[in-house]
Each structure stands twice: as C-alpha cells, then as structure tokens.
C-alpha cells in the first residue's frame, strides 16, 4: 500500500503539534495534506537519509539541490508557510523541538529511519563548497570563496540579472523596469558621492563593471575597479572596451587590501562588505579611510541583519554558507556604522532600501524561472536550484524585515573637521536625469 505521504504527514504533525499547511507527495505516488495547498514533493527516500544524517537546514538544502525535494505551486507561499511553521515558531531554536532529548524528536527520527531506506547517506551534491581550512578571511580563502560564488559563468548571471549586470539591490519607481531601477541605483550612488569630471573613484568589488561604466560615462570620473573574480574582470573589461571607456576605467583582479595608489576622491562599495567578515571589518574601514583624500566620501551599500539578543550566538545559515556565500557574514547596521566611525569617518546619511531588494530578487527569480532550461544547460540543475531557492527565500526575508539593506554615506573629515559637504545634502533624491 502506498502510504509514505500520510506517514510523513503524521510524523511531522506529531513533532510540531499542529497540522501541516502544505501537502506532501511522496516517492511512492501517495499524497496527504490540505487540497489546494502548495505541494512538498519528496521524489526519493534519499532526502530522508540526508535529513537524518544532517538534521535541519543543511540536510534539507542537500536534498533540494540534488532534486530529491521540490515544491509545486507558489514557491513563495510554500516557503512562507514552512518558515512560519518551523523556524518562526521556534521549532529549530532553543526551547523548541530540536534537542535530541525531546521525545518528539526521537519519535520523529525513528519514524524517518523506517521510511528512509538503506544507509549510508548519499554524498553531498557537487555544488556544495568543499570545507575550507585555515583562518577566516585570509586573502587566499576570500579569493576561493568569491570564486565559488561568482565564477559560475557570466552567461548565467546575465540570464538572471538582465542586461544591467548589476548584482545588488535596484532602486525602484512604480512601473519601472529592472534595467531602469538598476540605472537609477547607480546614479543615486554617483550623486551621493558628488562625482564630477576628473574625480578618481575606487569601486571596491566592481562586479561586471556596471558602476564603473556609469560613473565614467555619465559623470566623467576616472575609475579603478577591483574584484577577486577572474570571470567578472574579463567580462567588465570587454564591456568597457565596447563602451570606448578603456582610457577612463582600470579593472584589476586585486584584493582591496592591496590597493596602494590613493588618494581617491570617492569610494563605492556596493554589495561587497558582506564578504569582509566581522574579524576584518575594522581593517576594511581603516584601509578605505586611508585611500580617501580629506573630504572624500565613501558609499557603503550593505545588507544588514537584525541584532541578536546574544550576539555571540549569531551564525550564518548553513544553506547560505555551504552553497551561496561561503564565509559571508551580516552585521546589524548600527555595528557597521560604529566601526566606520571608529576608523575616523563621519556619518552623513543612512538610507534603508529594504523593500527595493525584495522587488529586485523577485525579478531575478522570474528571469531564472522564465529561462530555466537554458540556465540548467549553462551551469547545472543543482546550481540553478541553489539560486532559485536562495533568491526566493531572501526576497521573503527582506519583505518580513528579517534582513535589510542600507546605503551608508560617510566622509573622511578634512583638516579642522570640515566635511566639505553642502548644508543640504538630500538633493540627490531628485534624479539628475529626470
């Protein structure tokens, strides 16, 4: 008798103490759960072995990446329902049902064991980063982490990001396109930095060159862009040559810690600081301070997390660390601001654009889903599944204020403390092109 779905539903409901809001379809063709709800499809019993071997997020992630778990129906609705049921109600947190001594956990594990089939557990999918050794955020380890994330094919990123090739939060107006919103974000950064003809701009983590091109073409800046990704640098240089801007833009495969040709008039760091890490963030702030002339501005565009009651308990999500951003870390915006001030910067403006990132991520997911077969051919089915899950889950996290993103504008004060900034600085909110 095909009854795996019903047995799994009963086990999960006994564990959680309430009805499952999603439907389950098991490998034996059986189904159980509320009609019309999103369907959690368990295609193979290997998924259960992964969960038994690595309980929690990593086991689920491995099954998802391997294609053993899937969702039919609205992906965002399914993720919302499961997050509310499990994570937000504390089922995997302290005081929930995670501890092995809890009889509900032991009963759940025994039930899964009877359904899971023969051991041993399957190996991790090839898309999982191999465990790194050594000290966090050394130059070599950071380069390997960046390569894991960014060197997966420029064509794949172009499919997801669109023609703008900007891999950070766009800046939206009602009815605008993704490309228009990304252009407006780049222009916003340039206006906050008060770029003008001949200014030297350092773009830290320059990606595929979009910020450098916009600053040089629209504002006449002379730009140095640095990235640790060989593929990004090659793509950026090709674009720059096609734009006829090779005399204004220099793109280097270089760690920001090795840049020694300051002073610069301005520095942009857009979506790069998340890779720096807590142990290196003061060094990051000190280095950028040293590279700016007095009166020069830094625009730090960075994802932030909510503060923890006990900051020592913070850890990166297992899925994100293993498949998306190895060694990446988020910090509360207050901590980021304090560290920049400790390095000598004066804070001049903070703008939260959290809702803008949710809109951006939903557009990227739509791009990926629309060209799914092509995306799989460009990378792998597992890699495409990683990006779909992480971008959809991240969109929900921004919408629910679990994480945010902020543009922090700071200045290196000139002699005597002068900021060399106008009395009214918010004129950048009116588009220079509109």
Can you lay out the helices and strands and say which pair or pack?
Elements: H1 4-16, E1 23-25, E2 31-32, E3 39-42, H2 46-53, H3 57-65, E4 69-72, H4 75-87, H5 103-116, H6 139-150, H7 154-161, H8 178-192, E5 200-204, H9 210-219, E6 222-227, H10 230-242, E7 249-253, E8 264-270, H11 281-291, E9 292-305, H12 318-324, H13 333-342, E10 346-352, H14 354-370, H15 372-378, H16 381-399, E11 403-411
Parallel strand pairs: 1-3, 5-6, 5-8, 6-7, 8-9
Antiparallel strand pairs: 1-2, 3-4, 9-11, 10-11
Helix pairs in contact: 1-5, 2-3, 2-5, 8-9, 11-13, 14-16, 15-16
Describe this structure in words.
The chain is an alpha/beta fold. The chain contains 16 helices and 11 strands. It has helices at about 5-15, 45-55, 55-65, 75-85, 105-115, 140-150, 155-160, 180-190, 210-220, 230-240, 280-290, 320-325, 335-340, 355-370, 370-380, 380-400, and strands at about 25, 30, 40, 70, 200-205, 220-225, 250-255, 265-270, 290-305, 345-350, 405-410. The strands form 2 sheets. Strands 7-6-5-8-9-11-10 form a 7-stranded mixed β-sheet. It has a 4-stranded mixed β-sheet with strand order 2-1-3-4. Strand 8, helix 11 and strand 9 form a beta-alpha-beta unit. The longest helix is centred in the last third of the chain and has 19 residues, at about 380-400. The protein is elongated and about 75 Å long.
Could you list some keywords that capture this structure?
11 strands, 7-stranded mixed β-sheet, alpha/beta, about 425 residues
